[in-house]
Amino acid sequence: MIDLHTHSNASDGSVPPGLLASLGREAGLSWMALTDHNTTGGLPAFLRAAQGAGLRPIAGAEITCEHGGRELHMLALDLPESSFSQLQTFLEDVVARARESRQQLVLDLAKAGYPLRYEEIARAHPGSLINRMHIALALKDAGLVPSVKAAFDTLLSEQAGYYHPARRLQAADVIPMIRDLGAVPVWAHPFLKLDGSQVGGILEDLVPRGLSAMEVYYTTYTPAQTQAALALAEKYRIKPSGGSDFHGTSKPGVALGVGRGNLNIPDAVAEALFDR
């Protein structure tokens, strides 16, 4: 069993990267990737811990980008250690723009009567890149929303008018950059917000740009979505990938390797993905 999409508290997960490797082994994983949002900060600790955990660690990152105005997330999987600082430098502007966007979001919420302070949120998550997940947790902890999901569905949605996304990288630029670093570009959870026709249209554009794989196994996918994703991967001759999108207590009910109990990604997926 494998899990090629997990998060630590270096981004918006709750588990330190060193502990994550141990939890992966306890969960019965044979391969495990750490893919924090727009940062490589947790990878050294994760790789060190994995050496004694008896599993195959995969260094990764989840990069926020867009294509045709739609937000996409690209996983850079199997990053060489020599590329960590280079990728982090590449992402510096992305992180800075995202920080400004989150600060403005908190300020606008406070002006609307939701008493949050960005500095307090940052102090509550030292070493993390603050994103909407942290703000959702702050809203929940303050009793302003009943759950993290409710925060995303209401106050933190673009439709609510408080959240204005930062200018994003273009997927067509991110994919060749990932390949140049020596990693595998994987489109994360394509069916999370898109249907088969929309996914197919984007694949038509991005596979010629070097997209290698996409997640066909994912925590929230229905069996029909998994089958549709597998069919599209075969049609466009890209490899399947999969992961739980584990965040620890930041995303309750999602467990390593099995998601909400519906995942069982075979080792052969990782073996094919990293056989280069």
Which features does this protein show?
276 residues, eight-stranded mixed sheet, single chain, DNA polymerase, domain 1, TIM Barrel, alpha/beta, 8 strands, globular
SSE order in H/E notation? Answer: EHEHEEHHHHHEHEHEHEH
Radius of gyration: 18 Å
What spatial form do the alpha-carbon principal axes imply?
globular
Largest sheet: 8 strands, mixed
Model regions low in confidence, pLDDT < 50 over at least 5 residues: none
CATH class of the largest domain: Alpha Beta
Query: How many extended strands?
Result: 8
Chain-averaged pLDDT: 94
Into which percentage range does the β-strand content fall?
Answer: 15-25%
CATH architecture label name of the largest domain: Alpha-Beta Barrel
Distance between the termini: 21 Å
Range of helix content? 25-40%
Structural class by SSE content = alpha/beta
Number of helices in the DSSP assignment: 11
What does this structure look like?
This protein has about 280 residues and is of the alpha/beta class. The chain folds into 2 domains: about 1-90 and about 170-275, TIM Barrel (Alpha-Beta Barrel); about 95-160, DNA polymerase, domain 1 (Orthogonal Bundle), CATH 1.10.150. It is built from 11 helices and 8 strands. The protein has helices spanning about 15-25, 45-50, 85-90, 90-110, 120-125, 130-140, 150-155, 170-180, 195-205, 225-235, 265-275; strands spanning about 1-5, 30-35, 55-65, 70-75, 170, 185, 215-220, 240-245. Strands 1, 2, 3, 4, 5, 6, 7 and 8 form an 8-stranded mixed β-sheet that branches. α1 (about 15-25) packs across α2.
